[in-house]
Amino acid sequence: MHGNLRTGAPPVLLMLLCAFTPAFAKDPAAEDARFEELRKEMEDMRLRHEREMAELREEVERLKAAGAALAGDADGEIERLLRLAEGETPEATLGTIAPTEEAPFIDRGLGLQALNPEISIAGDLLTKYIHREDEKAESDFSVRVFDVHVESYLDPYTKMKVAVGLFPDDASLGEGYVTRFGVLPDLNITAGKFRQDFGVVNRWHKHALDQVDFPLPLTQIFGPGGLNQTGFSFEYRLPTLAGGTQEAILQLTEGENPRLFGQNSRDLPSALLRLKHYRDLDKDTYLELAGTALYGFNDEWSVNDAKEDDRRATMALGADISLRWEPTDRMRYANLEWRTEFYFARKSLLAPDGSGGDTVKALGVYTSLQRQLSRTVEIGIRLDYYRPDHKDYADLGIEPLAFTGRNPRRYQVSPYLTWWQSPFVKVRLEVDWIDGHHTGPSELVLVLQIVFAAGPHKHERY
């Protein structure tokens, strides 16, 4: 019976079993069963031990192989260093070092992809159904613009932005400027061509608007493209006031807006000043108030088909308020935003009919309300009102700042629905009802807009 025990069992344990067995043995059959049970337990322990040792050896071999792959010829290098430490000269060890292939030299300065600017393309497609008073209905499908946006940090302090608009018939520079951050504490300076900070939405590109197009008073006073001029912008963060943040923006630009400075033959500069106040009303509600003033000159007038020089001032004033509710725990799924902007323009001129000096005044306002229903769906409505001046000579190049009819006015109602398929693609359905008095026919326009963006900037408003 004892001869059946494996020779791999620990000898000391066998001796103890043999020594104590006679003292406790009472029943030979019971003792045999007990020894058989112990033998099986010892056999299981031996097999488990061998299996664990095999697994450990495999793990050690794997780690050694990985270390050899990482270290390369580290062992040879260590041996060479040990020989040098023992006094052998480098010449004596040269023969023990295996020759290596000559490494090719690559000038990476010729292919620094990391310095390439970020490039994005935004497409803006429109499908329209237009019904005008006393006219036949018409439809139109158009590519409004493909915007190519290029951005890059030139160094840790300076960033460049360029936006080029590709239209069906031509291409033009929308914006191109560099911004130097931290010239002085809280002061940034921008130089180039840029959309100016007159109100809120004038700064945005059309494809990034909440509606299909700019508000009616903005396009009537500044033109279809808004206020976009070349010069310098100084942005300064003012000290906080009553828990709110203040910012002042001063922009000195060339007076080149065709609607306000179309008679600026000497490129006299214009100045814009904007003061903005931003504050949190509570953890979910934000308020922004701002006022803007623009001042410039015109100096050349066409009077009865003759040119006359007379420097006269042009001024525009604006005020805006934005209120946004956005619950912090559901900010991506629900919000409500109300925005209102006021516009006023006063242009001093020489009347084109030869009646002498005169002043044209125009004003307008819009208000919009937008609600986010889910992560992908937004609904909203915008109400526009524009009040131009009345001048008998308005049809001689003054429209739409003035019209010949008495008490001219125009207004627009625009409800819309926007569906974001993804952060890069959105589809908008908008209805525009436009009417007025002595400012053109009434219109009903149904618009389907598709906007998409390829690149890192999505629908950036700049």
Folded structure, characterized:
The protein folds into 2 domains: 2-78; 122-454, Porin, CATH 2.40.160.10. The longest helix has 44 residues, at 28-71. The chain has helices at 11-24, 28-71, 74-85, 90-94, 216-222, 258-261, and strands at residues 118-132, 138-155, 158-166, 171-184, 187-195, 228-241, 244-254, 269-282, 285-303, 306-325, 335-350, 357-372, 377-387, 389-390, 402-403, 409-422, 425-437, 443-454. It is an alpha+beta fold and 462 residues long. β3 (158-166) and β4 form a beta hairpin. The strands form 2 sheets. It has a 16-stranded antiparallel barrel with strand order 1-2-3-4-5-6-7-8-9-10-11-12-13-16-17-18. Strands 14-15 form a two-stranded parallel ribbon.
Characteristics:
462 residues; alpha+beta; Porin; 16-stranded antiparallel β-barrel; two-stranded parallel ribbon; 6 helices; 18 strands; disordered N terminus
Strand order of the largest sheet: 1-2-3-4-5-6-7-8-9-10-11-12-13-16-17-18
Derived structural class: alpha+beta
* Global morphology: elongated
Q: Got a strand count?
A: 18
Gyration radius over CA: 40 Å
- Low-pLDDT stretches are 1-25, 91-95
**What is the C-level CATH assignment of the largest domain?**
Mainly Beta
Overall tally of domains? 2
Mean pLDDT across residues: 86
Approximate helicity band: 10-25%
Q: H/E order of the elements?
A: HHHHEEEEEHEEHEEEEEEEEEEE
N-end to C-end Cα span: 93 Å
CATH third-level topology of the largest domain? Porin
By CATH's scheme, which homologous superfamily of the largest domain applies? Porin
Note the main sheet. Answer: 16 strands, antiparallel, barrel
Q: Helix count, per DSSP?
A: 6
